[in-house]
Amino acid sequence: MTDELKTRLYHKLKAYHQENLLQYWDELDQTQRQLLADDIDSLDLQYVTQSFEKVMQTGQSHSQKKDDHILPLPEDVYCTLPNVDSHRQDWQTLGLNLIADNKVAVILLAGGQGTRLGVDYPKGMYCVGLPSGKSLYQIQGERMFRLQQLAQERTGKKGTIPWYIMTSQHTKQQTRNYFEKHKFFGLNEKDIMFFEQSTLPCFDFDGKIILAAPDKIARAPNGNGGLYSALSNCGILKDMQDRGIAHIQAYCVDNILIKMVDPVFTGYCASKNADCGAKVVRKVDASESVGLVCLCDGTYQVIEYSEISKEMTEKRNKNGELMFNAANICNHYFSYDFLSQTVSARENELPHHMARKKIPYVNESGQTVKPETPNGIKMEKFVFDVFLFSKNFAVMEVKREDEFSPLKNKCGTGRDCPETAKAALGKLHGRYILEAGGKFVTKDGKEISDTSRYSILTLAR
């Protein structure tokens, strides 16, 4: 049986030039051989090898600039807060009514571990040093709770917002345990659903699938764009359909200022009958390394800064503003119909992107080695790549200081780190107090007239 199994696997792998996966077969015991056989059989070899070939071709052409293919976003799909405050109340009212009518859901993209933060647990569990000790998950959960309360206060109807949390293989159980430990932050457990994104095998630069151990293929999550296949495979779309969900917002876990299920944004997109939408902020300056939402070959896309020349990056319009200025912050809107159609008919059209990574591998002695430099390719899909399928797109520009402060780097790096996230949240709350008529005073009662360079955490001392 073992020889027959090896022969079958060999011929299967040879058709795609992946016989290297059997190089330690003779050294494995029966249990290990079965584990490896199951791992190999779980692969769609045609799909993954063709995907690798495409991502390598894309990577080789990535250096070609897209200057001749891109245009700024047209005015009819774009609005800027607070320039449209005359409509803001109407959009908010519509959004709150949709929440009260159980028509709105939110998707959290939470597959990332806190490796760059220097921790070995999911990023959402991280606390940036707030006096309350609250984590990103707790901040977001409490915002959800309050938003449901607000919708009920405004409409008299009690609605719920289902919270669909996409994890990776490595973060799913820790995330679930964390929510259980904190009693789901006051939310109904039945309205919080955890689901797992898929993985893809890792390849070396020669196109060979990497072994993480003699009996195990090296795999990695398929990027936040893995959301779309997971929605179907994990029954999330079916649950949305059963609940009558019509409007969905999706966001990444690491933005401490995130306005998830923002009723203004939901109402704006719903009022335009948008199938897909994005929140953006203005670039800090022309040189900021950030993805830009724009038109590319007639479709809406996010273009990486490296795909545009310096001249195009610095180009300005008649008002003296950067022509390409809409920085993506991964806060997106989808209609249910758009998501359902995309998943069922067009998910396979979404491109894979190349990520050169340090991937643990098995050396000639059968030992697992952690390389010090990138040695292979992980293939990822991006959540915003579905924009190109949109027929009725909507973009809302918001203030960076109100809605965007990502947490990506460890303490002390000075940018997109715990210190900057903590300061951004403190300053936001300070502005809330001032806008509500509050004041900050010194210990002797003297009013502080200029609070712009302080955060509430500093002023409260």
Automatic annotation (TrEMBL):
- Pfam families listed in its UniProt record: UDPGP (PF01704)
Q: Name one GO molecular function term.
A: UDP-N-acetylglucosamine diphosphorylase activity
Name the pathway it acts in. Nucleotide-sugar biosynthesis; UDP-N-acetyl-alpha-D-glucosamine biosynthesis; UDP-N-acetyl-alpha-D-glucosamine from N-acetyl-alpha-D-glucosamine 1-phosphate: step 1/1
Q: What class of enzyme is it?
A: transferase
Alphabetized UniProt keyword annotations: Nucleotidyltransferase, Transferase
| UniProt EC number | 2.7.7.23
The record's listing under PANTHER family reads:
LD24639P, UDP- GLUCOSE PYROPHOSPHORYLASE
Q: What is this protein called?
A: UDP-N-acetylglucosamine diphosphorylase
